[in-house]
Amino acid sequence: MSFLVWNYQGLGNPWIVKGLRDLIPVNSPLLVFLVGTKCSLSQIETLKRRLDLFGCCVEPRGRSGGLMLLWQKSIEVQLQSFSSFHIDVSIRLDESLGWWRFSRVYGEPDKGKRVGFWNLIVGYILNRLDLGYVPETIMNLLN
């Protein structure tokens, strides 16, 4: 089972798009999480079609941010929640296996808001642990 997490820095750059299109067939990741997509929904839909993957996204705020989670069509994914800074899904690889959570967080770029952001994340994690979700995967990408 493999995952790709990449600070993409904008889907508008053709070299970056080519790099991703070359990387995915070679590594066949089940899930691809991209941060910093900086693109419109139409650009995202085009990329999903070219890569032949399912996915969901959070549009950027102005000229920064943007998150995208892509997945192979062979797995089942249910979106649980999202914001400008996170995507949280439940995943089932096979009917014989249970559901598990895949949560990805991209840090608040505004230094003045980071304490509040981290308080929200800690509360979110504690709520999830109280509910007994296992295995839990949390990855933090900081600016």
Which key terms come to mind for this protein?
Deoxyribonuclease I, Chain A, 8 strands, alpha/beta, disordered C terminus, flat, Endo/exonu/phosph_ase_sf, 3 helices, four-stranded mixed sheet, 143 residues
Secondary structure blueprint with pairings:
Elements: E1 3-7, H1 14-27, E2 31-35, H2 41-51, E3 54-58, E4 67-71, E5 76-83, E6 86-92, E7 100-106, H3 114-131, E8 138-141
Parallel strand pairs: 1-2, 7-8
Antiparallel strand pairs: 2-4, 3-4, 5-6, 6-7
Can you offer a commentary on this structure?
- The chain has 143 residues and is of the alpha/beta class.
- The chain has a single domain, classed as Deoxyribonuclease I, Chain A.
- 30% of the residues lie in helices and 32% in strands.
- It has three helices and eight strands.
- The protein is flat.
Helix content bin: 25-40%
**Which fold name fills CATH's third level, the topology?**
Deoxyribonuclease I, Chain A
Give the biggest sheet: 4 strands, mixed
What percentage of the residues does DSSP assign to strands (E)?
A: 25-35%
- What structural class is derived from the secondary structure elements? alpha/beta
CATH superfamily membership, which one?
Answer: Endonuclease/exonuclease/phosphatase
Total domain units:
1
Radius of gyration: 15 Å
Total DSSP E strands = 8
Strand order of the largest sheet: 1-2-4-3
CATH architecture: 4-Layer Sandwich
Mean pLDDT: 79
Quick one: CATH class? Answer: Alpha Beta
